[in-house]
Amino acid sequence: MHDLFLSAREAMSKAYAPYSKFPVGAAIRTTDGRVFSGCNIEVASYPEGWCAETTALGHYIMGGGGEIAEIAVVAERMARITPCGGCRQRLAEFAGADAKLYLCDDAGVVETVTIGQMLPYGFEGKILK
Ligand code: THU
Hints:
The protein has helices at residues 2-12, 52-62, 85-94, 115-118, and strands at residues 24-30, 35-39, 68-75, 100-104, 109-114.
């Protein structure tokens, strides 16, 4: 748990957030122990930037995907960040409702919730397949 927080915090140190000055880091661990992390990346055309969770998901997919056990999220300037709505939907695409989500401050995990708790009544794509 704490080591996944450390991976998220390390990722946060790479954030490219010159506009918001709000660095965020995220780390995803699969049940077989692989860890994929990411930071937020902003763009001068503001809506084109993206979140730390999204970068981490990109690394997770490119690393082969798999079952997600736990996710950690940390932001330098927020005591207990929760993923934005879009990232809740993205995380729920790949992480089951029971996957753990660690909400962190700059020292460690502050609260543990599940993906299901973060996105109740979420839209599921099953019917589209
Ligand atoms: N941000 C994230 O990286 N993850 C979230 O869940 C919330 C917001 C980023 C996006 C933007 O670069 C900055 O935080 C301010 O919104």
